[in-house]
Amino acid sequence: MIITFCGHRELYDEKEARAWLERVTEDLIVKGAEMFYLGGYGAFDRLAASVLAEQKKRYPHIELVLILPYLNRRKDISPCDSSIYPPLESVPKKLAIVRRNRWMVEQSDVVVSYVLRSWGGAATTLEYAKQKKKRIISFQG
Questions:
Q1: Cβ(137)–Cβ(110) under 8 Å?
Q2: What is the pTM of this model?
């Protein structure tokens, strides 16, 4: 089972979001999730990476994968185990993150969402996940 994350670049209540994300990711791991796709941008992505790095200490079999929107992005993928550059070579740079996000949704079984407003990139990605009929677990702040 592949899990991806969709959220804003800022967090409104980091402590509450962390507690929620810890519960959600542990439940997913216990139910068979082994691969987690991370975007690497913004506060929610950093929080997801941090929470999963802690989960990996208890569940060393899980794999954390950074999905790169740009081929030349710095490869500092800690705490990720690996990185993937999706087939985005022909995508204009200004659309790379949007297309990378769509690719992540398409590959995933579950989308974990921290989307609190109806506009912006995270909201667009969440709408795409709904169109693709993905299972979505949403933060209810």
A1: yes
A2: 0.91
What is the layout of strands, in order, in the sheet containing 135-138?
82-84, 63-67, 35-38, 2-7, 110-114, 135-138
CA 18, distance to chain mean position in Å, is: 14
pLDDT per residue of the chain (141 residues) written in tens, 0 to 9? 999 999 988 888 889 999 999 999 999 999 999 999 998 888 899 999 999 999 999 999 999 999 988 877 655 556 788 888 998 888 898 999 999 999 999 999 999 999 988 898 899 999 999 999 999 999 976
In the chain the domains, ranked by start, together with CATH numbers, are 2-138 (3.40.50.450)
